[in-house]
Design brief:
By secondary structure, the chain is of the alpha/beta class. The protein has 2 domains: about 160 residues, 3-Layer(aba) Sandwich (Rossmann fold), CATH 3.40.50.720; about 120 residues. It has 13 helices and 8 strands. The longest helix is centred in the middle third of the chain and has 29 residues. It starts with 8 loop residues before the first strand and ends with a helix. This is Putative short-subunit dehydrogenase-like oxidoreductase (DUF2520 family).
Length: about 300
């Protein structure tokens, strides 16, 4: 038996950023997305734009007709959706039910698998903005996959490869740690960059060489241009060289420079200085730097 049928009838709940992008990828692989659930105006627009051949239908109708049912709802809504579908008894035995939650494995699908569905967790390790680049980025993305048995893993692997991604096996017991690591490396990176841009904008608030203001409050300006090549190089170095990529005053153990940074940032935003302190402390620990610097960074609020 082929673990991945060449053509599946696909229903999607819901047509958010993730669900609509995966729907496009599945269509390109030869599957047929017949219906999507979409409630908000943005979701309806996204469904009609990205999946024009699919109908916007009630969830129950989508569940009844699907051979592959894709549940692409926020993590907090997944358990309730699964219980509701099981209670309505609308998912046919043999249906492949896939959710896209990074934090959950297949245990959360138990109410449906107990009724004969095949449950899979397939999480694209990618950020989704709702723009066209979402679909293009799937081709370079890894997908964390979890299944109850080897047949499930084979199906999950085949579906991911069809969508152009790389399947990565994640054990059920490791899903929370897997998800925490991805959130730490991506979501917190955005916070870090946004804070750094804010501090740069403040530092460049004076007149430029021609007497005109250097910066305004619009994104994509001089602070971003200053930071972009440095941050891109740092990310590349970190991914290729690990902790050996650490540079700068914290890694060097320059107590005076770091103390000056803390004082300067405190004039901008107390929350920013505490974020810098926390990140500097972890950097100092990784770099095994001057104990005097570790002592300075541990003195929160001073």
């Amino acid at each position: 038996m082929d673990p991945a049928p060449a053509r599946l009838t696909v229903g999607i709940v819901s047509a958010g950023r993730v669900g609509s992008a995966l729907g496009v990828a599945l269509e390109r692989a030869g599957h047929v997305v017949f219906g999507v659930a979409a409630i908000s105006d943005a979701s309806v627009h996204r469904a009609r734009t990205r999946l024009p051949e699919a109908q916007v239908l009630p969830i129950e109708q989508i569940a009844q007709r699907s051979e592959l049912l894709l549940l692409a709802v926020p993590d907090a809504e997944l358990a309730g959706l699964v219980r509701g579908l099981a209670g309505a008894n609308v998912v046919r035995p043999g249906t492949i039910v896939v959710h896209t939650s990074g934090a959950n494995g297949v245990a959360i699908l138990a109410p449906l698998t107990e009724q004969g569905a095949l449950g899979l967790a397939i999480h694209p390790a990618m950020t989704f903005t709702g723009h066209d680049e979402d679909i293009a980025r799937l081709a370079n993305a890894c997908f964390g996959v979890t299944a109850a048995d080897e047949v499930g893993y084979a199906i999950a692997q085949a579906l991911v490869i069809e969508m152009g991604g790389e399947p990565v096996r994640v054990e059920e017991s490791s899903r929370s740690l897997y998800h925490a690591a991805l959130a730490h490396g991506s979501n917190h990176l955005v916070t870090l960059i946004v804070d750094a841009v804010a501090a740069l904008r403040e530092s460049l608030s004076g007149p430029g060489l021609l007497g005109q203001p250097l910066v305004d409050d619009q994104p994509g300006g001089l602070p971003e241009r200053l930071l972009a090549p440095l941050a891109s190089a740092a990310l590349d170095n970190a991914l290729r060289r690990g902790r050996a990529a650490l540079t700068g005053p914290v890694a060097r153990g320059d107590v005076d420079a770091v103390a000056a940074h803390l004082a300067a940032l405190a004039q901008v935003d107390d929350r920013l200085v505490e974020s810098y302190r926390a990140n500097s402390l972890r950097t100092a620990q990784l770099a095994d730097t001057d104990p005097a610097l570790l002592e300075l960074l541990a003195k929160k609020g001073h």
